[in-house]
């Protein structure tokens, strides 16, 4: 994200913290330990292996974003990015991150408890100078030059119809985006369970949809799914490793297109198509 007010400092935490839950697909217990770092990078540590959070390490974008063997890393990265934290070590006990309540809020709360602190260095933002447009069937993502940071997202889900939400400098990430939960259709969750997936999914840790009637459980926001799509996009774009100055227009975009865009922006930065200030 682009946070002009505090000049995009390298930001870490002051003390260690941890939390645990279960993986959405594995249904297995998964614990996380946050540790301070002055590296200017976010690194996951699993079984003594260090995996940097960057687009080059993305291995899968089906039902979540994977880095190496690690699954569903986008919500924790969105939580860190939403708080401006970009220098951190995340120790893991399992390869699938805990789903918690399906949103980024528990990660945000745990990181706030670790007392975020800005270091002396700054992270230069990538200033997008050219339009990039990507599409895949009926989904698209577009990035445009813009003085600041803004995401316009539109979704259209069966049973819900069109939903729109705009995230910009005046949106409060903690109260308006972080609480939006992951979601799925009841029928599809049952099908996934048959295939050994979504083992940890329940009405307590996801927003459940019905193709005819819309929400099965109570939504936290009228347009909770589109807010969650913004949350996913923020997590995916944080893999660029730098704040960006741009406007993003996304229609039905998911992890696959999000990551393709993140790769283009990161590559463009080095190719000087997208120039640093
Ligand atoms: Zn998500």
UniProtKB/TrEMBL annotation:
GO biological process assignments: lipid A biosynthetic process
An annotated GO cellular component: membrane
GO molecular function: metal ion binding; UDP-3-O-acyl-N-acetylglucosamine deacetylase activity
InterPro entries: Ribosomal_Su5_D2-typ_SF, UDP-acyl_GlcNac_deAcase, UDP-acyl_GlcNac_deAcase_C, UDP-acyl_N-AcGlcN_deAcase_N
E.C. no: 3.5.1.108
Pathway recorded for this protein: Glycolipid biosynthesis; lipid IV(A) biosynthesis; lipid IV(A) from (3R)-3-hydroxytetradecanoyl-[acyl-carrier-protein] and UDP-N-acetyl-alpha-D-glucosamine: step 2/6
Catalytic activity: a UDP-3-O-[(3R)-3-hydroxyacyl]-N-acetyl-alpha-D-glucosamine + H2O = a UDP-3-O-[(3R)-3-hydroxyacyl]-alpha-D-glucosamine + acetate
Keywords: Hydrolase, Lipid A biosynthesis, Lipid biosynthesis, Lipid metabolism, Metal-binding, Zinc
Tagged with keyword Lipid biosynthesis: yes
Function, as annotated: Catalyzes the hydrolysis of UDP-3-O-myristoyl-N-acetylglucosamine to form UDP-3-O-myristoylglucosamine and acetate, the committed step in lipid A biosynthesis.
Protein's recorded name: UDP-3-O-acyl-N-acetylglucosamine deacetylase
Species per Swiss-Prot/TrEMBL record: candidate division WOR-1 bacterium RIFOXYB2_FULL_37_13
